[in-house]
Amino acid sequence: MKPYCIFISCLVFFAFCSLARSDFSHGPDECCFSFSNVKIPVKQVKSYHTTHIECNSNGVIITTKAQRMICVDPTEKWVQRLINLVDDQKIKMSHSSSGDSD
């Protein structure tokens, strides 16, 4: 009976460790391991976000309107311009939707 209890105890312990590791970890969900050099037209961009601080390299993840996620290098001039254009579009859209009642 003792080997059976030890086995069950070990099984429960490993299951708990596995659960704690997967559900309660706070590591990054998305990191960039390589960057695309293909310039993405602003009209194809839905949104963007930067990678988590715990990722090995800083990156920007661009989500296209076709729901593709593309990693790009934030130090590239074309990426910085693209981010500025997307931000400008969002500002214009928010002003036009809230400013029509004047």
From TrEMBL:
<feature type="domain" description="Chemokine interleukin-8-like">
    <location>
        <begin position="28"/>
        <end position="86"/>
    </location>
</feature>
<dbReference type="GO" id="GO:0008009">
    <property type="term" value="F:chemokine activity"/>
</dbReference>
<keyword id="KW-0202">Cytokine</keyword>
<feature type="signal peptide">
    <location>
        <begin position="1"/>
        <end position="22"/>
    </location>
</feature>
<dbReference type="GO" id="GO:0005615">
    <property type="term" value="C:extracellular space"/>
</dbReference>
<dbReference type="Pfam" id="PF00048">
    <property type="entry name" value="IL8"/>
</dbReference>
<dbReference type="GO" id="GO:0006955">
    <property type="term" value="P:immune response"/>
</dbReference>
<keyword id="KW-0964">Secreted</keyword>
<comment type="similarity">
    <text>Belongs to the intercrine beta (chemokine CC) family.</text>
</comment>
<dbReference type="InterPro" id="IPR036048">
    <property type="entry name" value="Interleukin_8-like_sf"/>
</dbReference>
<keyword id="KW-0732">Signal</keyword>
<dbReference type="InterPro" id="IPR039809">
    <property type="entry name" value="Chemokine_b/g/d"/>
</dbReference>
<dbReference type="InterPro" id="IPR001811">
    <property type="entry name" value="Chemokine_IL8-like_dom"/>
</dbReference>
<protein>
    <recommendedName>
        <fullName>Chemokine interleukin-8-like domain-containing protein</fullName>
    </recommendedName>
</protein>
